Amino acid sequence: MIKGAIVGLGKMGLSHAAILGAQPDAEMVAVCDASSLVLNAFKKYSQVKTYSDYKEMMNKEPLDFVLIATPTRFHYPMVKLALERGLHVFCEKPFSLTVSEGEELVRLADEKGVFNQVGYHNHFIGTFRELKRLLQSRVLGDLVHFSGEAYGPVVVKEKVGTWRSKSEEGGGCLYDYASHVINLIQEIIARPVKASGTQLKRIFSKSVEDAVYGTLILENGLSGILSVNWSDETYRKMSTSITVQGKNGKIICDATEIKIYLNEPVEKEGLDKGWTIKYITDLAIPVDFYLRGEEYSAQIDNFIDCIKQKKQTDYNSFEQGLCTDKVIELIIADYKKQ
Amino acid sequence: MDKVLFGDNQFFAVNHASDEKARAQSIRFKEDSAIINVIDQAIDLGINTFMCTTHDRIGNICDHMRANPLRYKDFNIYPCMPYAHKYANAVTELGIMGTIKQYVPGNVFGTFAKGGFAFISKDFKSLMELLIDAEMKMFRGIKTPVIFIQNVLVDLILGLKMFEVFKEYDAYIRKKYNAEPGYITMNMPALLDALNSVGIENPIICSSINKIGFRMSGGIEVYEKYLKEKEFRPVAMQVLAAGALRPEQATEYLGRFPKIESVLFGASSKSHIEETKSLIETHCK
Predict the structure, then answer these.
(1) Minimal CA separation from A76 to chain B, in Å
(2) ipTM score of complex
């Protein structure tokens, strides 16, 4: 049995804890959080050991891995200590607040030879996997343009918030929402190398942006747009989509369906001229335990499997998480320049 | 329970196959009267149970029912709590304590006057009861013989292995509301084992049941085994697998499991309601 612990029991941490609890190859032996409310619930209702100090937990417990789901500004010291202890680490997104810290962690993970993963769960959604596969198979021919979008109703009123309303702690729509879209673009199409025309707009928040708009230029020269807004009440929950336009047509992909329009058929893929729609019902990755979406379990299964098989992940390595952090820095620099 | 339970996803822009269809639904059901019209059509077709989430707008539907007691005298609502996105978005924005402060009725410190925060952070049972009461407020005066907890919460508790929480929920629903507790889950076999382990026997469990195994975690084989061999009261949902199955195929499959007590489905047009209801009644006897 692979033994692990969770640091940070907010929305994601609790969800990871439940998924780990149901994982047949892993045992969650301890949890750590600053809130006595949450720790008391674990003390009362579960067998798991509770800690309020992650250092003490990492010192005392015989762990194989830790899962870190704290506010972003804590990622660096916590991941660093875990790596120094030789533990495998799953870290929530975004990976780090500064590129220099992120680079140090990537180097350290590499030196220690431990398995590492960042929580960009969209890569475990079957439709986005299918989009990547279709682009690699060049069904659209030469690419012309892309747009990466995400909308949702996180901040829909003016009020006092948590760490998510402080940019220096990794709050704001860019770190929280746009990072998902940037990461999808970087892994599915190509890595962004330049940002331009960036607009960071405040709608309700006092000190962070609620929307991110701008252009990204990728390493292969392709340009496209980023359009992300977490103050959009027309969406019931976060809705992320990628649209790619090529000389042979267009693909629109979100978490529930992938819509393909081709000017000319692509026989090797069995795709006709005109529209083809594929649904998540056919593309979902099967999981043994479901909470909020197959992707949340599938990413944990992948991490545990990497530890078991002793292989580094193809999805969401620290290095890939760092790449997203670098693009976030490019976007901020572009905005400040204006 | 009735054989046919009418669901509410179509009214609140929940569509597991398409965000675009979901938006079209949210436009169509902008006015509460549009929802009431469809419910009335379902009633005229002989459907007497509405299974719905504790969405704010359901409160308005309940107001309408209370104002027209004769029209709805035989009508039951099975509430499903909580409306998770409300809390999930609040936790992202306000944190866990902030969310409790926002949704526990009255002032938290007033509610738990004696011990203040120290008390609330230990007495989870009272906290749960307060939150249940807050969610149930909108249904006062309406028959709610079965009260469900939503899958996101059931499956969270299940994964955390905090099974005693189910026991406390079960006892409170029976005692305070004189109703049968129900559980919605995406992990039916694991949940039934968990409920049995804390002495909850023959529970009402609502889970995905469809021919292609969509959202049947752990695999379709173990679901079928449980449907054939175990003692519980299954309610089938997602029977059309988000539109991947035709109603005829879907209900024929359900017919293979006589234990299925009820089938939950949602539809927006009279002809769809009529067709699905009649298929369920033909295949699931």
Answers:
(1) 21
(2) 0.92
